[in-house]
Design a protein that fits this description.
The chain is mainly β. It contains no helices and 8 strands. The radius of gyration is 12 Å and the shape is globular. It starts with a strand and ends with a strand.
C-alpha cells in the first residue's frame, strides 16, 4: 500500500508500531523505518510513504501538532 505525495500544514512525527515503512521526502533519499523507530517531518514537507511488503502489515502513528482542523493532508501532483 502507498500514500502518494502530499504535505501537511503542520509538523508531523511518525512512529512505527509494527512492520516496515519507507518514507520519501522530495529531494531526499528514502528512509526505511522499522518497529519502534520515528521520523520527523517539518510542516510543509512534501512526502510519500509506503509499505514495501506484500505480506506484512505496516502500522504507524502520526503525531500532528496543529490548530484544530489544520492538520489534514494536502495532495500534491505525482511525479
Amino acid at each position: 500500500a502507498e500514500n502518494p505525495r502530499h504535505k501537511h500544514p503542520a509538523a508531523i512525527t511518525f512512529y512505527v508500531l509494527s512492520g516496515i515503512g519507507v518514507w520519501q521526502e522530495d529531494g531526499k533519499s528514502p528512509v526505511t523505518l522499522h518497529t519502534g523507530e520515528t521520523l520527523f517531518c517539518p510542516s510543509g514537507t512534501v512526502h510519500a510513504h509506503r509499505n514495501p511488503s506484500t505480506t506484512e502489515t505496516l502500522r504507524f502513528l502520526e503525531f500532528i501538532a496543529a490548530e484544530k482542523g489544520k492538520g489534514g493532508s494536502i495532495s500534491m501532483p505525482q511525479n
